[in-house]
C-alpha cells in the first residue's frame, strides 16, 4: 500500500526486536470480546486512478457556483483567488506542519500568524487579533462569551439582522451557561433601533454590518450607547472584502470585531473549512479566546515568534479556560493572509470598489423589473430584493436554467413567512454583464 | 506587632491591626517559575475564606489564589501589573497581592505559623 | 552521529564572529522580514480592471482613512512565503513523532481532489437539487464512519476535535434535559485526559470531577465506580488513552455508568490505533468524536483547519446538531431548521457551524479511506502500533518507560532516566532539533513526570524509525555522560535558538506597529 513504507521484512525484523510473535499479538491488551471479529462492509484498497474516478463522479453530480452565473452570498462569497495563494499553502512545510509547539523550528508558521494578526487588526480597526477560529459564526459566539467574562453581565442582545446561522451558533454555544441571549426580530427594511435594547444588564450588543439584508449603518451611536451603559459592542462582518470600502466596526467604536474571512483566499467549498476573524482592544487581550502568536527574542537577541498567553487555554486551564478550542484555522488563515498580501492597500480597496460597482449595476438592472424592489439604500456587494411572490420556487426554476439567482428568504428564515418573498443577491468582481443579464432575463420570465 | 500565617495552598497572610496583607509564598513562586501576569481583586470586593481571590500565571501554568480568611478587599498591589516579576523577586514582601479588612480575625488561628509551614513544605 | 564534530565546530567559533552576515542570510538560511517591512509603495500583486465611475451607495460609512496594508508584487509575496516555509519543520521534511497529534503522511491525491471545481466551487446555500453529488459524498464519508465505529448516527458539522467533543457533550446534556433530569451535573474525567475534555464539559454547564489513574496509566475502575451516583451525567474516557494504553476496563465501565444512569463519552482522538480492529459501538460508547486529521490523514496545516464528526448512539441521535442529510423521495436534502427537525421528532442541540461542516476535509478523508480500503485501515493501525512498540523496545534500556508492557500507537517515557543529569525533558527535546528530528510531545500527559510521548505513526519507514531511535539513544547516553552543554545550549542549528517566552507573555506584542508609532509610544 503506497502510504505504508514498512515491508513484510521490516515488520518481521521489528517484531523480533520487540519479542512479539505477530502484529496482532501487540493488540493483546484488548480483551478478546472487544475485538471486532466480523467483516466490514467496505471496499478494499484502491489506486489513485480508481479513487480519483470515484470522487470525480461526485464532483460531476453538482452544478458549481464557480461555473455558472451565481449571485449567492449570505455569508459565503465567490471571489477570484490568485494562483499564488493555492501554490504557497500547498508547500509541504506549511501544509504538513502542526501547531507550532517548538517555536525554534516553526518560525514560518508563527511569523505568518503574526502577520495575519496584524492584517486582521488593521482591517477591523482594532488593536489585537487572534490567530483565527473555526469560522465567523463561531468567532461571533466566542465574542459573546468573552463579553460576559469582561462585563460580568448575563445578557447579550443579538440584532434581528444578524445572519440567522450566526445567531443560531451563539444561541447553541450559550445554551447551558446560564446566559440569556435576546434575539430581536429581523427588520428587512433596516433602521433597527438597537440603542433602545441597551441597559445596565447588557453584556453586549451584536450587530452585523453590512447586515443580513445588505444594509450598511453607522455603528457609532450604538457604540456610544453601549459604552455609556458599560456594555460591549460586538461588530460582525460576514463579507470581509467589504472592509476595503466600508469603515470598520472598530473605527466606529466596536469593542470586539468578528468576521468570516472566507472571502479572501478561500474557496466556497460547500461551506467549509473557513476561518473566523477575531479582534479586540489590547486591554481585553487576556480575556480573548483562541491561539495567539507573539513577538519575542531568542537567546542570541534575534527577533522571533512564539505562541503566547497560553494560560488562557484549555491545555493549561482545563475547565477554567476561556474556551475549549484547541486549534485555529491555520491553513485557511494563511490563504487569507497571502491573498491580502498580494492585494495590498490598493488591491483591496480596488477589489472592494469593483464589488460595489458590480452590485450597484446588478441592483439597478433588477430594480427595473416589474414588482421587484431593492431594499437597502446603502449596501456593499449584496442586497435583499422583495419579489412579488415567494422567492424559493423562483430560485429553483432559475437553477434549472443554470443560474444560481441568490439565497431565498425561506432558506434562512423559514419560521418567518413574511420573509418568503425576500431574495438575497450578491455580486462580486467575478460577476459579468452576461451573468447579470442571465439573472435579469430569468427573473423577468419567472415573475411574468 | 505583625504575625505571618500560612495556608496549605501556599498563601501567606500578615496582619497589622484589622488589616491583613496576602500574597503567595516563596515556595509557590519557585514552583510556578517566571510569573508573567497577576489578576487581582477589585477593592471593595467581599471575600469569604476559600474564595478565588486572584490568579497568578507563569508561561506554562496558572494558579488560583484563595482568600485565607473572610474580609473585604481594601487594596490591590498595582505594582504587579507593570512588573509581575516582583512576585518572583520578593514573594513575601513587595510582591504581595492584596489587603483585606478582616471580618473574623479568629480564622487566623486555624492557619499555620512559619515553622508549621516549613514543615508542611518539607513533606511535599 | 556527527554531533561531536558539530560541537567542536561551534565551540571553536569565537563569540565575536557574528551569527549574521552582511544581509542576515547564510547560504540557504534566510532572515525574512515581515510583510510590512517589505512594503514597496506603488507595487501591486494583483491586476484588477478599474472600477467604472459610479456614485457609491455606501451611505455615511464609506471608508475614509487608509487601512495600512503593505504593497508587494507577486514575486515578492512568493519569495516571502517560500522563505518562511523553509523555517518550518513538517512531516514532509522531518520525522515528526509528536505524540497524541498523529503526524502521518498527508497524501497529495487528497489535495488534488479537494480542489476539483465541482466540489471546491460549491456554495453552501445552492439549491439542494444542484448539489446532489456533494451530499452523496458526505453521506459516503458518514457511512464509512458508521461502519468503522459500529455506531448508528454521525453528526458531520463540528469543525475540529474539540468542537466535536462539545457537540457530543451537548447531546448528552440535551438528553438529560429532555427527561427532566436536572440532578446530573457532574462529569468524571481522568486526570490524564486532554485539557479539552474538562473545558468542554464546563461549556455544557457541568462540573468536573477528576479521577486519578490506577498507577499503571489506565483508569482506576474502582475509583470511577465509587464516584458514580445519581448526579453523574457522564464519564469521559479517551481510548486508547493519552498514555498510549488501551483502556481494558472500558466496556465494564460503560456498563457501570449506564447502570448508574449516566452516559459514556469517548474521546476518539486515538482511534487511529484501533481502526479496523475495534468498533467503539461494541464497547457501550454513547458518543465519540473523530479527528479526521489524525485517523484519516487530512493535513494539520500548521494548526488547522480540522474536522470533528461525532458518532452518536440511538439514544442521543435525536439531539444531533443541525444540519444533517436525509434521503427524501427524489434525492438527498438537508434538514437545516428547528421546525423541520421537530417535524421529524428530533430535538437538535442547535447549530455549531455557519454551514454544513468541513467539506474540504471530508473529501480528503474519503480519498484516504478509499485508498486504504477496509483492509488497509487495519494495516494502518497494525503498523502504527508496531512502530510505537519498536521504538519502545529499542529505547527501554536507555530511557525509562512510564508504564510496563505493550503500548498502542504511542509510547510514553518519563524523565527518571535523566535524574541527576541536570537535563530536562525540554532540553532533550531541543537537542533533538539539532539532530534534525522534530521532538515528541513533552510534559503531556500531566500524570507522568517530565513526559516524553512518542508517536511515530505508520508512515515512517524502518530506516526513519532506526534514525529516531539512534538519536534518542545517543542523547540519553550523552545526558548521562554529563554532556549537558549539548542540551542546555540547544538548539544551535535551527532558524532560532531558544525564545524568551516569559517576555512574550509579560508584555504581549501581538502585531506589528509602524516604527513611527513605536517611537511615539516610547516617548
Tell me what you see in this structure:
The complex is a heterotrimer of chains A (448), B (124) and C (523). Chain A has 448 residues and is α/β, with parallel strands linked by helices. Chain A has 13 helices and 13 strands. Chain A has helices at residues 8-18, 48-60, 83-89, 92-95, 107-124, 136-151, 164-174, 220-228, 314-317, 330-367, 391-400, 409-412, 433-447, and strands spanning 128-129, 155-158, 180-183, 202-208, 232-237, 256-260, 276-280, 293-297, 303-307, 373-374, 382-386, 407-408, 422-426. In chain A, helix 7 (164-174) links the parallel strand 2 and strand 3 (180-183). The N and C termini of chain A lie far apart (60 Å). The relative contact order of chain A is 0.14. With 124 residues, chain B is α+β, with helices and mostly antiparallel strands. Helix content of chain B is 19%, strand content 37%. Chain B has helices at 26-32, 79-82, 86-89, 114-122, and strands spanning 3-6, 11-16, 19-24, 35-39, 46-47, 52-58, 62-66, 71-76, 98-102. In chain B, the strands form 2 sheets. In chain B, strands 1-2-3-9-8-5 form a 6-stranded antiparallel β-sheet. Chain B has a 3-stranded antiparallel β-sheet with strand order 4-6-7. In chain B, strand 6 and strand 7 (62-66) form a beta hairpin. The relative contact order of chain B is 0.25. Chain C folds into 2 domains: 110-366, Type I PLP-dependent aspartate aminotransferase-like (Major domain) (Aspartate Aminotransferase, domain 2); 374-497, Aspartate Aminotransferase, domain 1 (Alpha-Beta Complex), CATH 3.90.1150.10. Chain C is built from 18 helices and 13 strands. Chain C has helices at residues 3-12, 74-85, 108-114, 117-120, 132-149, 161-178, 196-203, 221-227, 250-259, 292-295, 314-317, 338-343, 359-395, 425-434, 462-480, 485-488, 501-506, 515-522, and strands at 153-155, 186-190, 207-211, 232-238, 263-267, 287-289, 310-312, 324-328, 331-335, 400-401, 411-414, 441-442, 452-454. The longest helix of chain C is centred in the C-terminal third of the chain and has 37 residues, at 359-395. Residues 1-17 and 519-523 of chain C have low confidence and may be disordered. The chains are: A alpha/beta (448), B alpha+beta (124), C alpha/beta (523).
Amino acid at each position: 500500500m503506497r502510504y505504508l513504507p514498512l515491508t513484510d521484512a521490516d515488520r518481521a525484523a521489528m517484531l523480533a526486536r520487540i519479542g512479539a510473535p505477530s502484529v496482532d499479538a501487540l493488540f493483546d491488551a484488548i480483551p478478546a470480546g472487544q475485538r471486532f471479529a466480523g467483516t466490514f462492509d467496505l471496499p478494499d484498497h484502491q489506486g489513485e486512478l480508481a479513487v480519483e474516478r470515484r470522487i470525480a463522479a461526485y464532483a460531476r453530480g453538482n452544478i458549481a457556483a464557480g461555473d455558472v452565473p451565481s449571485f449567492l452570498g449570505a455569508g459565503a462569497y465567490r471571489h477570484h483567488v490568485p494562483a499564488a495563494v493555492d501554490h504557497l499553502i500547498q508547500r509541504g512545510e506549511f501544509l504538513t506542519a502542526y501547531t507550532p509547539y517548538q517555536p525554534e523550528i516553526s518560525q514560518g508558521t508563527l511569523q505568518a500568524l503574526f502577520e495575519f494578526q496584524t492584517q486582521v487588526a488593521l482591517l477591523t480597526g482594532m488593536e489585537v487579533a487572534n490567530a483565527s477560529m473555526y469560522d465567523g459564526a463561531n468567532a461571533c459566539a466566542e465574542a459573546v462569551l468573552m463579553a460576559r467574562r469582561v462585563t460580568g453581565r448575563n445578557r447579550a442582545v443579538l440584532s434581528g439582522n444578524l445572519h440567522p446561522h450566526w445567531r443560531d451558533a451563539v444561541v447553541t454555544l450559550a445554551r447551558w451557561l446560564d446566559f440569556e441571549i435576546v434575539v430581536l426580530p429581523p427588520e428587512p427594511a433596516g433602521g433597527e433601533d438597537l440603542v433602545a435594547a441597551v441597559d445596565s444588564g447588557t453584556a453586549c450588543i451584536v450587530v452585523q454590518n453590512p447586515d443580513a439584508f445588505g444594509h450598511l449603518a453607522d455603528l457609532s451611536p450604538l457604540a456610544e450607547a453601549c459604552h455609556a451603559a458599560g456594555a460591549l459592542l460586538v461588530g460582525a462582518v460576514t463579507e470581509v472584502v467589504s472592509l476595503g470600502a466600508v469603515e470598520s466596526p472598530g473605527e466606529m467604536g466596536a469593542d470586539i470585531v468578528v468576521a468570516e474571512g472566507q472571502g479572501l483566499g478561500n474557496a466556497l467549498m460547500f461551506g467549509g473549512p473557513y476561518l473566523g476573524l477575531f479582534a479586540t482592544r489590547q486591554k481585553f487581550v487576556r480575556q480573548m479566546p483562541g491561539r495567539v502568536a507573539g513577538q519575542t527574542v531568542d537567546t542570541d537577541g534575534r527577533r522571533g515568534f512564539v505562541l503566547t498567553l497560553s494560560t488562557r487555554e484549555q491545555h493549561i486551564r482545563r475547565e477554567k479556560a476561556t474556551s475549549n478550542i484547541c486549534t485555529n484555522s491555520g491553513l485557511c488563515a494563511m490563504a487569507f493572509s497571502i491573498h491580502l498580501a498580494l492585494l495590498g492597500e490598493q488591491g483591496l480597496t480596488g477589489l472592494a470598489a469593483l464589488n460595489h460597482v458590480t452590485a450597484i449595476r446588478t441592483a439597478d438592472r433588477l430594480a427595473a423589473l416589474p414588482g421587484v424592489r431593492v431594499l437597502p439604500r446603502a449596501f456593499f456587494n449584496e442586497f435583499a430584493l422583495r419579489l412579488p411572490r415567494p422567492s424559493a420556487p423562483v430560485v429553483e426554476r432559475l437553477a434549472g436554467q443554470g443560474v444560481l439567482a441568490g439565497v431565498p428568504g425561506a432558506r434562512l428564515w423559514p419560521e418567518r413567512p413574511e420573509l418568503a418573498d425576500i431574495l438575497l443577491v450578491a455580486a462580486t468582481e467575478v460577476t459579468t454583464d452576461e451573468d447579470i443579464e442571465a439573472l435579469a432575463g430569468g427573473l423577468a420570465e419567472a415573475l411574468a | 506587632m505583625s504575625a505571618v500565617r500560612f495556608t496549605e495552598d501556599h498563601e501567606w497572610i500578615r496582619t497589622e491591626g484589622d488589616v491583613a496583607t496576602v500574597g503567595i509564598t516563596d515556595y509557590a513562586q519557585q514552583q510556578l517559575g517566571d510569573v508573567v501576569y497577576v489578576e487581582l481583586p477589585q477593592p471593595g470586593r467581599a471575600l469569604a475564606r476559600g474564595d478565588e481571590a486572584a490568579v497568578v500565571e507563569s508561561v506554562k501554568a496558572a494558579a488560583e489564589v484563595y482568600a485565607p480568611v473572610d474580609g473585604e478587599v481594601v487594596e490591590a498591589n498595582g505594582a504587579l501589573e507593570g512588573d509581575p516579576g516582583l512576585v518572583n523577586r520578593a514573594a513575601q514582601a513587595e510582591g504581595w497581592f492584596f489587603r483585606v479588612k478582616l471580618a473574623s480575625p479568629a480564622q487566623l488561628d486555624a492557619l499555620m505559623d512559619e515553622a508549621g509551614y516549613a514543615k508542611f513544605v518539607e513533606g511535599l | 552521529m556527527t554531533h561531536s564534530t558539530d560541537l567542536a565546530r561551534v565551540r571553536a567559533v569565537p563569540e565575536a564572529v557574528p551569527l549574521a552576515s552582511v544581509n542576515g542570510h547564510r547560504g540557504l538560511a534566510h532572515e525574512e522580514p515581515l510583510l510590512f517591512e517589505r512594503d514597496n509603495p506603488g507595487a501591486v500583486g494583483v491586476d484588477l480592471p478599474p472600477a467604472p465611475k459610479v456614485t457609491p451607495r455606501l451611505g455615511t460609512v464609506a471608508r475614509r482613512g487608509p487601512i495600512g496594508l503593505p504593497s508587494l508584487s507577486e514575486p515578492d509575496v512568493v519569495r516571502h512565503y517560500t522563505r518562511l516555509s523553509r523555517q518550518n519543520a513538517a512531516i514532509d521534511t522531518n520525522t515528526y513523532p509528536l505524540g497524541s497529534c498523529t503526524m502521518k503522511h498527508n497524501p497529495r491525491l487528497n489535495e488534488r481532489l479537494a480542489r476539483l471545481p465541482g466540489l471546491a466551487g460549491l456554495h453552501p446555500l445552492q439549491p439542494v437539487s444542484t448539489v446532489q453529488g456533494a451530499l452523496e459524498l458526505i453521506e459516503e464519508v458518514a457511512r464509512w464512519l458508521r461502519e468503522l465505529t459500529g455506531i448508528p448516527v454521525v453528526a458531520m458539522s463540528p469543525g475540529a476535535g474539540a468542537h466535536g467533543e462539545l457537540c457530543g457533550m451537548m447531546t448528552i446534556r440535551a438528553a438529560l434535559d429532555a427527561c427532566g433530569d436536572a440532578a446530573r451535573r457532574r462529569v468524571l474525567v481522568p486526570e490524564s485526559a486532554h485539557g479539552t475534555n474538562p473545558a468542554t464539559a464546563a461549556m455544557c454547564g457541568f462540573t468536573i470531577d477528576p479521577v486519578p489513574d490506577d498507577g499503571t496509566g489506565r483508569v482506576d475502575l474502582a475509583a470511577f465506580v465509587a464516584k458514580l451516583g445519581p448526579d453523574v451525567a457522564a464519564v469521559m474516557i479517551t481510548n486508547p488513552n493519552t498514555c498510549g494504553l488501551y483502556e481494558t476496563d472500558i466496556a465494564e465501565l460503560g456498563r457501570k455508568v449506564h447502570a448508574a444512569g449516566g452516559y459514556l463519552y469517548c474521546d476518539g482522538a486515538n482511534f487511529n490505533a484501533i481502526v479496523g480492529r475495534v468498533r467503539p459501538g461494541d464497547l457501550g460508547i454513547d458518543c465519540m468524536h473523530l479527528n479526521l486529521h489524525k485517523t484519516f490523514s487530512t493535513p494539520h496545516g500548521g494548526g488547522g483547519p480540522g474536522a470533528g464528526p461525532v458518532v452518536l448512539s440511538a439514544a442521543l441521535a435525536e439531539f444531533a446538531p443541525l444540519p444533517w442529510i436525509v434521503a427524501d423521495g427524489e434525492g438527498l436534502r438537508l434538514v437545516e431548521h428547528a421546525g423541520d427537525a421537530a417535524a421529524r421528532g428530533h430535538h437538535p442541540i442547535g447549530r455549531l457551524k455557519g454551514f454544513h461542516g468541513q467539506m474540504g476535509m471530508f473529501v480528503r478523508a474519503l480519498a484516504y479511506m478509499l485508498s486504504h480500503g477496509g483492509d488497509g485501515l487495519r494495516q494502518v493501525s497494525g503498523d502504527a502500533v508496531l512502530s510505537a512498540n519498536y521504538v519502545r523496545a529499542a529505547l527501554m534500556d536507555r530511557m525509562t518507560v512510564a508504564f510496563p508492557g505493550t503500548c498502542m500507537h504511542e509510547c510514553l517515557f518519563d524523565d527518571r532516566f535523566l535524574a541527576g543529569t541536570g537535563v530536562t525533558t525540554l532540553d532533550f527535546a531541543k537537542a533533538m532539533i539539532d539532530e534534525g528530528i522534530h521532538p515528541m510531545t513533552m510534559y503531556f500527559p500531566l500524570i507522568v513526570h517530565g513526559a516524553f510521548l512518542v508517536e511515530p505513526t505508520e508512515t515512517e519507514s524502518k530506516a526513519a524509525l532506526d534514525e529516531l531511535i539512534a538519536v534518542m539513544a545517543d542523547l540519553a547516553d550523552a545526558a548521562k555522560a554529563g554532556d549537558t552543554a549539548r542540551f542546555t545550549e540547544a538548539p544551535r542549528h535551527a532558524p532560532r535558538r531558544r525564545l524568551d517566552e516569559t517576555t512574550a507573555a509579560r508584555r504581549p506584542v501581538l502585531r506589528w506597529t509602524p516604527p513611527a508609532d513605536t517611537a511615539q509610544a516610547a516617548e
